[in-house]
Amino acid sequence: MFRCSLLIVMLFFALLSRAQDSIPHQKAPKDTIKKHSWVKACVFSAVIPGTGQIYNSVAMPKRKKHAYWKVPLIYAGLGVTTFFAVKNGMAAKAYRSEYESRIAGNGISAFDEYDNNGLISLYTQARSKRDFAILGVGLVYILNVVDAGVEAHFVNFDISDNLSLSVRPRMFDSYSYGASIKFNFR
């Protein structure tokens, strides 16, 4: 189900970018440049991770499309952290059930090399690792949304050669030194 919805969203954006390519490129006056919504990018990434980056790439001019490569990284981060959360959760559950089985008097079965204190220690470690992995899932998810929003701000950002910055050393008086920063907008 998730793959199907992701495929539909990607096809939608592909068709949207194809429709924009068929329009002849003319330089629009500055007043008619369409604002790119950072809120939409954040909402897209919050609903389906990675779609905000695709939305930003579709809106970027031809020479600056570079956000597609982030989508596999997002899903790799979510997948790896989810894998470790599930793996450590299952290990904690196994250690707990073994400990409860021993307390109930059913004997030693799977982890006979550990005593009860060792099982408690293993359970605590696995639970901590699971919690950190869940925190990692949340962190990757939040970074995905923040990245989409920040990149949306830079969709129409001017990075032409007409912009320059110069930093030069400056002496204010005989004992004070500093730097002079000069922006040029040509």
Task: Write up this protein.
Helices cover 60% and strands 10% of the residues. It is built from five helices and two strands. It has a two-stranded antiparallel ribbon. Strand 1 and strand 2 (177-185) form a beta hairpin. Helix 1 packs parallel to helix 3 (51-59). The longest helix is centred in the last third of the chain and has 38 residues, at 116-153. The model is unreliable at 11-25 (pLDDT under 50).
Please name the defining characteristics of this protein:
186 residues, mainly alpha, 2 strands
Helices, by number, come to 5
What is the general shape?
A: elongated
Proportion of residues in helical segments: 55-70%
What's the average pLDDT? 80
What percentage of the residues does DSSP assign to strands (E)? 5-15%
Number of strand elements? 2
The succession of helices and strands, N to C, reads HHHHHEE
Category from helices, strands and their pairing: mainly alpha
Kindly report the oligomeric state of this protein. Answer: single chain
**Gyration radius from CA atoms, angstroms:** 27 Å
| Euclidean distance between termini CA atoms | 52 Å
Largest sheet: 2 strands, antiparallel
Strand order of the largest sheet: 1-2
Stretches with pLDDT under 50, minimum 5 residues: 11-25
